Amino acid sequence: MSNVNKGFENALNYNNDVIAFGAYQGNQLVALTGADDSMSKLWQIGIDTMLGHRNRGLASYLVKTLADEIERRGALPYYIHGFLI
After folding, report:
1. What is the pLDDT of residues 20-78, one digit of tens each?
2. What's the CA dihedral at 51, 69, 24, 46 to 10 degrees?
3. Among 1, 18, 84, 85, which one has the highest count of C-beta atoms within 10 angstroms of its own C-beta?
4. Which strands sit side by side in the sheet containing 17-25, from one edge to the other?
């Protein structure tokens, strides 16, 4: 199953995800943010936006909405941006 391309790999890790929010254009998912709770009260946020839908504020809106919900649930949201070489 690990070689299956599920899409939105930056938003979801497909193992410890506990919450996600998406943005749709019609019936097509164009942006997705998710969080996992693998570190108990410290929940990591991930985000993906399809190329043709970037720079429209979708990611900012989804991450803010997700972070607010994580805090409402008593956890601390965090995001790490970087590339592994």
Report:
1. 999 999 999 999 999 999 899 999 999 999 999 999 999 999 999 999 999 999 999 99
2. 30
3. 18
4. 17-25, 28-39, 42-49, 76-78
The pTM of the full predicted model, rounded to 2 decimals, is 0.84
Q: How far is CA 56 from the centre of its chain?
A: 17
Q: How is 23-73 classified by DSSP, letter by letter?
A: EEETTEEEEEEEEEEEETTEEEEEEEE-GGG-SSSHHHHHHHHHHHHHHHT
Q: Is 33 left (phi over 0), alpha (psi -120 to 50) or beta?
A: beta
Cα 28 to chain centroid distance, Å, stands at 16
Intra-chain end-to-end CA distance of the chain, in Å:
25
The rounded distance, in Å, linking the Cα atoms of 84 and 47 is 17
